[in-house]
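Regression report. Comparing outputs from two consecutive submissions.

Submission 1:
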Amino acid sequence: MTSPTSQHLNSYLADPTGTLKLTDVRIGRVRIGEMIVTGREAAIHAQEIINDACERTRRARLGKNGTRYPEPLPVAAPARLLSIEIRDYLADRERMGLARNTIEATARTLKLLQMACGDIPVSRIDHAHIYRLWDLLRWAPPLLLSDPMYRDWTFERAVARGKALRVDPPAPATAEKHRRFLVTFFGRLEHAKAIAASPMRVFAEVKKDLAIDPNKAERLFDEADLQRIFAPQTFIPWAMKAPHRWWVPMLGLYTGARINEVAQLKLADIVQESGVWCIRIQKTVDSDLSHKDRNRSRQSLKGKAAVRTLPIPQPLLDAGLLAFVEDVRACGHPRLFPHLSAGVRRDTGETNARYSQGVLNQFSRYMKGLGFPPGVGFHAFRHTIATELHHKGVPDEDIALVTGHSISKRVPVLHEAYFHKKPELARTKQIAVLEKYRPDVVLPVYQAGQFESALSDPRKFYP
């Protein structure tokens, strides 16, 4: 826009203080007797009105006598309110089958966005609103979105509260997560032509922080650490209290599997392939949930790469894992660790699909009792096996066959459609990889019927 009216608006937007009064505005057939603008949001709205009028006038002059058909609305006008777009976007995330944790994290980011810019039409959100959001993320007080005390707080009040509390800044990874959620949200609106352009185009990826905290505990076990964890005089008394205490740490030690992958195992996940006993890390339907449209399984996986079949390392077989499997099979429960609960969401009644929480808390307390610092827990088994295999010269793609990490593939069709046709070849490679990892640990041997008392009371079982 180059008209005097546009120039006045642009000047006001550069310094939106006081009040701007526009009189006798004429654009084609549009007449505005008087327009009073107070504040930046009102100036943006006035600018949209002027732009709309200019676009209509331009189109009318393109034809010889204009057109008798209704003019199409310019892109993003009229736009829907941010709250409505957020509601529909999150519902679509549900439809796509995204993990509940991902949807909830996205909702938190978008709720902060609405707090930063107000419930305005999405077409009016620009880079300045994103700057306000960064400011809110920097100074948001703890529990801003969950504590009822903050329910009606404004952006200004929340930021002032955070500054008064001198809250720590978010980690770079957290800031980058918020940025990615916003890029996806505004990208969807842009593709749907709800907005002319995404305000996130100018915000690049957050630079990774290379600073090292010397006080942060190393998430890696050495031989002395492993011997301390599995020392018979401490491990056996602790582990004898429940079957999952006995086996989950051992499975983590020798497979590097995530704790929830181990905790949610079913008897059907222990299989024999071509004479090789294996553990299938997978997600299968629970028949009692078949009436639901979604979440038909109480199991969960981090992603597609997590689906894998692992040969059971020989030390676990020597420790009596198959004898324990038979004991559980005799009790009639479909899961390997029936005393662990997946949990239920209070708001929806759906499963949390987190069988790991109970054993994670128990193992963390055990580690604390052994003198390990906070932050060092079950996941360190995964770091340890991956690191040891790497230093033994095992290729990354072979380590990923065990750990279930995603590997970039030059020819993904071959990997996804053909390589799995020869599972025995993958097992041979996995066995060779796992043979290279032999920690200096002596595992206690399971005795058949060892948990007969615990497995004989179905009242203590969870579905």
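Submission 2:
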Amino acid sequence: MTALVWFRNDLRSLDHPALSAAAAKGHCRAVYFLCPQQLDEHVIAPIRRHYLRRALNALAGQLADLGIPFDIIDAGHFRALPAALVDYCQQHNISEVFAHEELLVDERRRDRACQQALTVPLTLLDDRLLHPQRVLKDDGGPYKVFTPYARRGRALLQSAPPNCLRRPKAIDSQLPPAECPVFGEEKDSGDWPAEEEAVLNQLRDFCRERAEAYREQRDFPSVPGTSKLSAALALGLLSPRQCLARLHAEAGNDIWDPKSNPGTWLNELLWREFYHQIAFHFPRVVMGRAFQADTEAIAWGNDAKLFAAWQQGRTGYPIVDAGMRQLAETGWMHNRLRMITASFLCKHLHIDWRWGERHFLEQLIDADFASNNGGWQWAASTGTDAAPYFRIFNPTTQSQRFDAQGQFIRHYVPELAQQSDKAIHQPGEVGNYPAPIVDHRASRETTLALFQQIKD
């Protein structure tokens, strides 16, 4: 009899509970089901598809070295997975299937359907979060605001930090690695490491060299102050437990202080946890609905021409345009710029946050449904954020504060390269660079009126 590990968004061999459990049964094999039709429906970015294919090929090499047979099967769509999994288990005489629990609504439905279809057990293990049992309030309900959630979560981690699992021992016989086929349009992801050891080195380098200045440098897009591990976390090339363990190894107990540099990075991991648990407890948020139900009544303007200008980085606001061009060129955007560009779309152009959410999914290498949705609803003041709706970023002051010398703007908006450090933040129409497409003050007043209409 053979145990099966079913890989999903957990493409690594270290600290992998499902792989360890399957290997402990003696003989095991592994499978990954491609669902390109599902990826099409969720507009997964070409750069992320390429990154996924590279990650699968790297995982195939690791499993081959361990002597674990690995198959990559094109199942077409999520709907076909129960039948595909049943067929695979029958073909290979599988006695038990191990996989990691996933929290989003489509994935939970898929797993229930698979459990009902299988004649062997499907055991779902905790993996995606630092807090697999969920962080709940004293009354057993879910948190709806980040700060108290993070306070409780940090205390739980400090009292009982999670363990990281070793890689299973290799079997004597090594196998030829599987190879993942191309499954749709691709964009080169070569700037992002897809091999597990390279990603671990990236984590080690960040925790050793930059985490001690993270709080001070993370908001400046021209400075390499962030970890850039979000893509690896999204595909599970790295577990959040590994991130916590390495951060603690390098920074010690400073990580438990949320105002310290390393503690601020831990806070970012907790934001990821928070949005995943919001998606679990309130699945409407990843089904196109606002967390705050009353905000569904906002009369968004949804001007297609303004939206196109935003997509193209042609708004006349240099920091917004630089961020959008970084996204189009690299498939990634600095987090401060994600906040600025999202706020601008919703509260200056008055375009529905769902338009922006979809556009980011179409572009981002690190697209994560829960985090992307949480960030967009935060920016639009439709989500869990406790701050009032009248928090509206002024893109010019954001530019002056976080790119004071215009280094980032000059890189991505080269038509402004000759502007002075002062003028670059409000250049007006210069050559082929457009004048601002909206007025900040007037847009702010319109936003306040839109929200006030639903509050009255």
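Expected: both submissions complete independently.
Actual: both completed, but the second showed a warning that disappeared on reload.
Relevant detail on submission 2: The mean pLDDT is 95.
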